[in-house]
Amino acid sequence: MSEREPSQDDAVWQDLVARLESAEAAPDPQDKDTPGQDKPRPADAGNPPSSGLPGANFAAESPPKDALPVAGPRDYFAAEPEDDEFVPPEPAPLGTGEPLLVLAWCGAVGGPIALLLMAMFWRSAPFAAVVGLIVMIIAAGAYLVSRLPGERDSGDDGAQV
Fold first, then answer.
1. Of 18, 61, 104, 110, whose CB neighbour count within 10 A is largest?
2. CA 101 → CA 37, 98, 125, distances in Å?
3. Do residues 60 and 15 touch, judged by C-beta distance below 8 A?
4. CB atoms within 10 A of CB 11
């Protein structure tokens, strides 16, 4: 594979800079009042093939001043949102839950965490405290299980919207 000459790279770079500067000065393609072409031209329309540079197809001269820039993937504008979008209802305040259910969840989740912290930091904890935590965990779990529905509806597959 042959290396490019620095003078050829400079010429390609200068051509690219000139084309980009002319594209910045071109009128906005979204503007309906702009005179000129009706449709944007493809990127390589009118450009002769380059002389021996693989992968590069740059014109020797810059595009005409009245040419519109090519619309690219970043020229996309999202559609305006519709006015009838779904607005979720306000959630219930945090303090409105059933107190016994909240206490059972705190016991079922907080009990094992308390046992773990006692095992790590309070090795000489009284035996009654450890047994009390274990009883609290079992009682909270039993209450939560007893609150589960007894039977399923025959036509319900469990999915809710």
1. 104
2. 71, 5, 28
3. yes
4. 13
The encoded tokens of residue 96 equal 């409105």
Q: Which residue has the tokens 């010429």?
A: 11
The two tokens of residue 78 are 């999202």
CA quadruple 46, 52, 55, 58: dihedral, nearest 10: -30
pLDDT tens for the chain, 161 residues long, are 456 567 788 888 999 999 888 877 766 666 655 555 555 555 555 555 555 555 555 555 566 666 666 677 777 777 776 677 778 899 888 778 889 999 999 999 999 999 999 999 999 999 999 999 999 999 999 999 999 988 777 777 777 66
Residue located via tokens 């399923």: 152
The secondary structure of 111-155 as a DSSP string is: HHHHHHHHHHH-TT--HHHHHHHHHHHHHHHHHHHHTS-SS--TT
Instruction: At 106, list the tokens.
Output: 């705190």
* Cα 47 from Cα 110, distance rounded (Å): 73
Q: Phi and psi of 81, rounded to 5°? A: -70, 150
